[in-house]
């Protein structure tokens, strides 16, 4: 029977994300940690002869999972097997001094998360840049804003895009704060008392404290957590996964809206280059990628639920029944969020808008959306307020009814109003109002501009993001 | 039939939290918003005669819900009724200029949340201070650390408390960042284009931008969100409620551990002053308050699930089907978190520890926990490493087996080891090792000290927190 | 400050549902339980003089919560206070024999749930009947079926409604099985050993077993659970709330679809009689009630999450930290599901469909949906298969493109095909195909008929359901 | 880089479960479906020459995923590739008549679920049998029942086990009803109108109806769903996964209790044969498998959350954005529940109890648990009720206090009572009461017997279950 693969990783995630969570990726990060500890220990006087660290660094990238497995079958101990492998490659035995298994696993998993978070942040900035470009491109394209899914007021398509971009931006700011304040457990021993490092340093508490500071510096992490038990607090995992959920809410809303717009034919997620609809149904541009983004968001909610089930359930120094849960939920959350952004970036690259259909929709709704202005103008020209109001309401309600029941096939509200002497407005005057009405998008364009400026700041901070091109999706 | 009350509010939450979410509390915040808008509009040239703002401020606190209800029965419009009431009280008509209903409701709900968040932060700091005091009090009390709920290594009770306190501290730092970066929707009109304020300011985009800045300054909020639709992004609600969940994970773990300790009689949540167990069962000190804290944590997870169901589901400019959900989940989340901290603070005030039982437990486990040291000493005194290892393992396994099967009633491992010539250690030597073993708590005390220093920083920033005393709980 | 009321109960739930969960409702059910136990005990020989049960039954409905509260302030014990009140009213002291507090509270809460479930089942059947009526009414109304929210094939509006009705029907069948197999905890004492009833019956195990059977018979419940601890398994609460979630998924999907249809103006949830849109926006029929139904579904998910957090977390004979959670999640789940059905029934009564708009949509899409048939006919008339295919695809793609980019304003695919000699079909022939195409709805009508027959079975079983009329909603 | 495998499948699930969800397993079930459809079509007159079905059946098991992949690279269509492969193997082209892709995928996934559900039911019955055996084995072992995690009343260990078994039994009954009432979508075409089968049967609606009945009969399924769209209702997936959650709540509670018992050393999950604790910590029998069971329960909650996110979110005939979610959540739910039962069965096989420790605990608590009886006896012997009550309470409280504060090291309540003239009971009389007290376990044994009888019914229905032996776990 064929092996069952991780569908989120193998079908949707990018190579860069898989690298972090693969067997090889884990070994690399583990070796980074060992090296950081060695450097810090050497600085503080532990005997690590010159050249040793360099020897380990030189072979860090030589990863042979089969060899490690073979060792594990003999030693019956996974950590020992990986220690032996690395030491044999380097020709020294200086790693893992005063460290327990948890010192390794906890910190390694945290480092995997930090690197995965940084990758996600970068892709999210890419999406932000694309949204900003689209928003700017359509800053002037008037569209009928909808609330409760029905026509409400004019806005611009650019503003609509900027609105979802703004939510993504809030999510990025939140994620960024999580990353920049992330703390690792550090080298604390089996129950968190640092007893083994203290023994190594002959009871010198100051040196043990300096050791931790030095290690996190080498790892590029903000800090380590002072008082922990066997494990770091699982609410930290929740903080991470919930930040991914927050982050992807803007893209999810954007995609839901695009699915609705596709139903009205005002926009579409488009086809990949070369892709066509079936010959039988060439009209059928299914929003499959948008649905997938929404699906990933649902998936993230589920993984978040898993890690939420661990937070606040620590017994004593560390019985948290979390091992199997974290083994599933942590990598899979990151594969899901990575797949989400790969898909979302593809949508942003391929999406189409149909201004002709948008304009038809505008024409259909604008007479209704302009009745307030029409009344003001009628009063200005001398109509009685009450009469004008009565006239407009009467005609508007009748027009809606006639349109819906097929008595008329286009919105003829203006004709009706022009024909009603209570208002005293000519067709020309009414059409002039509508024409102005199309400009009644308020600060929409200004908001797009401000959004674009905010995005530029992030783009400058992460210059690699702008150039990123998603892989091709299924 | 009697009215059905909100059980979280009426049974568990404090008066201060109910004040924020009550009918009256909402009216006060709404009036704060109107006044802030008026001030900002006046600054920017809108006609608000001198003395008007003062007149509104003077009557701000006069809240008569019955009168507002009576007005609503006539106007059939809740916002109008509240405008009229406030204006009649003040004797002016200058509020709500260029504002729509959403401008009111969105910002008012956000302000309620900010004030509720600040209240929660303050109580969380109180809990932090109490944990720090307890940790310091028990910094030297050696206790058997447990992983997987079984004895693992020595630590101190103070360190155990500091460990949960440290998780709370991480949660407070996270919550604090959420509060300090919180942005309100601002006065953006029905679909977010600011069309009404623009009209009020004759199309002056700059003034409209300044208006927002000025309003948030008056409200004491970080900023407003640039591009929004009818509503602010619902992922912001999720960010808030998930921060409450993170925050309460430390207290939840603490309480779970205290429930387990109560089962071992090493500690207890205690009784309220004057409270006693039933006469039939005086031994029965139920951890009801700890269970309640864990229950609130489960409740918060449920409300978080509700707001997660809204994030990423915005259609167009604002169809998010969220009204009924937010009406339930937002206030009830805050009532739950408030009830949690009231209960948690009560536990911290009343909890008891039983050092005699803790010491009995230590005596029972320390011979096992000291076997590594015993072997080292035996080798030092000339025993063969392999023989010593074999001896210790043999006796340790036998002792465990005999204890569990009732062959012995106290841990007699030391007797067995003293009698085994393979080790060559006398009973005196073994007892000396155990005595030292009791000091093998590593950096436990140093970590308590560092934790206490960190807490002092927060206590200094929120000086009111230290003095807070929870209300009496049911 | 005004009391904070339960918004789900007071704003959305029906009187019948509030009755079950109110203070008074709970007292009534508690008294029902006491009476059932007395009857069973009397049957089995416990001394309950003739006339005593009748005396209790006579005063069962006299509920004075204030009096009970007054007693509780004296006794400091809520159960005692309620026992005294009932006994004083009846003039006897024969209730609660051999019962502990948990015997009361567990069974009472379960009985509240059963009665609430029965109420929900009845309303769900009402909704089913209304869906069946609507489905039958529109069984022949052809509509463009959509998958991925874009046009796919013809179906009928009645079939679409029946489809959601069928999901509701599956949910009712599931709920019905939960109700019909529901088991109560029974009178099992403080830790489930029935020690108190055994003492009462002088150790007669058979009689104690008979007692339980007799009690559940009097209560109208399927059975009691044999081996329990202090509490019944909390997975039973999860089974109940998850059944409510399943049940409401059909209505939720219906409402989501109606919101989308409202955006296309093919249908609307309508207005309450007398209600009108604002005069400024008479076109704006917001799907507020549909959104509310979707909101209630999200709320139910949250409460389900809470009870899921209790299931599988029982410690020993009953430490489940569930008290506060169940106090919130159980009644509130039922208020939410009740509010959902009240709202949904209102929608079904008021919804409107717009056949003229539906037909316009059909006309727009049917040429595309008929291309398979057109090709078959062309080949039948002698066209080459490849040429025909090529011709159709070419024109279909071009038509879509021209429609979307405003080059044409109506679907002119037939004109293009008629003009293409490769196909050899005249306009008359093409129009004849389209006309037939409108009948290509397969078994849609037959399925509506089968659905209606299934519904009739349920309607016959619950005859009160058909006549139920929802209360007026906010 | 190495491929990332599905950790739930490859690390925890059994071969039988992987078979169902593997690439090969899916192909087998797909071929079963094709054959069932062919048989039904042949019966109803569609031309399927004799021998054809046999030819397909003969090659059904020849699965070559590489060959299918190779075909897909050419056809660019996965379903076509699998059709071709099967037809080439059989030497005929009679499958998939009048079927669309969704006819295949929806039903195949449902069949995978049914078979997986049946496998789970069988393993759950195995667990039930083991629990019944354990409960019977320990039916007479008195143990201190705990509520709120502190001593409450005597019960028996067998009863405690039966209690969790009873919860599992409720879960099995629920699961069984889900399986026995499960309905598949059936062959309904692209939007559910059966248009293609109707065309195949020349519009004969009756035959199309018979076809479905016949297919489900061949597949061994209860029924098919009458009115569906492109997809079957996703609330059905939720019904399935939530039934798995209900099912596993009993095992989860059992394991949580065993973790707590391990902390008190009254029981342990044991070691696998040959496994030993580390030599340094031979006392340390970590409840890793129990924690894993609890972890799987948390995982199931997360997947349930995912499928809950799909239910009630169907747009029109089938836009449910569910594809990626179901691809993850459905198989992974089953891998998790399978891993849970494999682990749970291992625990039940290896767990140990320590009667000597249990008895020590009983001795410690029984004097307290017997105070009610002591008072009754004192009064019977002539003591004043009030005085007796006062005496007992006084001594009990003092004893608890002295035990906890180290003034006494064993429960000497009886000595104190014997010395108090207010009671008038001798030490012999008191000890006689305690001795009887140990029998005060009420119906505990009778309940174990009833439970065992109930289990026998299930064991008889699924005879293979009793003999099942779990695979060895990591």
Topology:
The structure is a homotetramer of 474-residue chains.
Chain A: H1 7-12, H2 15-21, H3 23-43, H4 52-59, H5 65-75, H6 78-90, H7 101-137, E1 142-147, E2 150-156, H8 157-180, E3 183-184, H9 195-200, H10 205-219, E4 223-224, H11 235-247, H12 249-264, E5 267-268, H13 288-308, H14 323-350, E6 352-353, H15 355-369, H16 371-380, H17 385-404, H18 413-418, H19 427-437, H20 444-461, H21 463-467
Parallel strand pairs in A: 3-4
Antiparallel strand pairs in A: 1-2, 5-6
Helix pairs in contact in A: 2-3, 2-7, 3-7, 3-10, 4-6, 5-6, 7-8, 7-14, 7-20, 8-11, 8-12, 8-20, 11-13, 11-14, 12-13, 13-14, 16-17
Describe the protein's architecture and organization.
The structure is a homotetramer of 474-residue chains. Chain A is mostly helical and 474 residues long. Chain A is built from 21 helices and 6 strands. Chain A has helices at residues 7-12, 15-21, 23-43, 52-59, 65-75, 78-90, 101-137, 157-180, 195-200, 205-219, 235-247, 249-264, 288-308, 323-350, 355-369, 371-380, 385-404, 413-418, 427-437, 444-461, 463-467; strands spanning 142-147, 150-156, 183-184, 223-224, 267-268, 352-353. A two-stranded antiparallel ribbon of chain A has the order 1-2. Chain A has a two-stranded parallel sheet with strand order 3-4. In chain A, helix 8 (157-180) packs antiparallel against helix 12 (249-264). The model of chain A has no long low-confidence stretch (mean pLDDT 93). At the B-C interface, helix 1, helix 2, helix 3, helix 13 and helix 14 of B face helix 1, helix 2, helix 3, helix 13 and helix 14 of C.
